[in-house]
User: What shape does this take?
Amino acid sequence: MRTGAIPSSLLRCQSLTHLFLESNEFYGDLPSELGRWQHMKILQLSQNQLTGEIPSSLCQMASLEGLLLDENQFRGAVKWEAKDALNLVRLPLTT
Assistant: This one.
């Protein structure tokens, strides 16, 4: 189990296609730099302590097919346009 903010060193790994960080104790805001991960297909951040608003930059992840953010403390909602979520199959945002 890992605790703390999402490591900034991870944000430099822009060629990742799958990232599973569920069931840790990450806290704080999601970095807007996540939107730079143009190859990301599955991003799993469920069951953490993440807070704040979900960055709109996630809509720029062109290859995103699965986004799992449930069981965090996010506020607000991401405004996805149909073209942004064309390949997205799952977007659970329940808290």
